[in-house]
Inverse folding.
């Protein structure tokens, strides 16, 4: 399997990034330099057979500024690709604000206040997905669910009252979609779906992700 990584990060001339796959049993792991793609993205293509674990990707991304010390901008991200059947996979990633506040939102007071507050609603997932979206956000209040809508038929053609609802696992929201029959490019946004309204609306000002081509 060929894996294309696209890391969203804005840098300056002379800076560099690399992606690190930790090994096991004292193994230092593997390090690959990322290539500057454009003003928003860095990229690298890696064969899964070359990685320490072909089914569970675990990686960190390090920013090496031209002046100053190295900084880890993505910490031990984990992506399970065991059930992925495609020969080519694209992974879009980038630094998450939630990591800065992870200790606060994972503390006992926040967990006790917010746990079990979200109502049970029907989430969407295709049985044979070729695209997986994953987003990490801090815990949200009662009745708030992360959702996605967009320009294609699968994404409900920007219908903000009937978006696709993501499934939550800890602080990670995800949805698995099969986009093989969709017309590209696809434009899409994440938002917050509020169940408290009689006619729920999507608040797209909370979280927005827009990209011209995900295929």
């Amino acid at each position: 399997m060929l894996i294309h990584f696209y890391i969203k990060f804005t840098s300056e001339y002379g800076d560099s990034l690399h992606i690190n796959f930790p090994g096991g049993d004292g193994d230092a792991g593997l390090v690959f330099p990322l290539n500057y793609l454009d003003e928003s993205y860095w990229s690298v293509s890696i064969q899964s057979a070359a990685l320490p674990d072909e089914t569970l990707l675990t990686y960190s991304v390090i920013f090496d500024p031209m002046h100053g010390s190295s900084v880890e901008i993505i910490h031990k991200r984990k992506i399970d690709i065991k059930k992925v059947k495609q020969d080519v996979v694209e992974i879009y990633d980038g630094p998450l604000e939630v990591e800065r506040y992870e200790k606060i939102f994972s503390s006992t007071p926040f967990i006790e206040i917010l746990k079990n507050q979200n109502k049970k609603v029907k989430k969407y997932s295709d049985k044979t997905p070729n695209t997986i979206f994953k987003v990490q956000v801090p815990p949200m209040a009662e009745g708030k669910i992360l959702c996605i809508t967009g320009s294609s038929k699968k994404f409900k053609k920007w219908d903000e009252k009937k978006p696709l609802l993501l499934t939550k696992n800890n602080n990670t929201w995800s949805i698995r979609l099969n986009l093989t029959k969709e017309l590209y490019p696809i434009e899409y946004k994440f938002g917050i779906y509020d169940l408290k309204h009689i006619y729920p609306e999507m608040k797209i000002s909370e979280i927005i992700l827009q990209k011209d081509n995900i295929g």
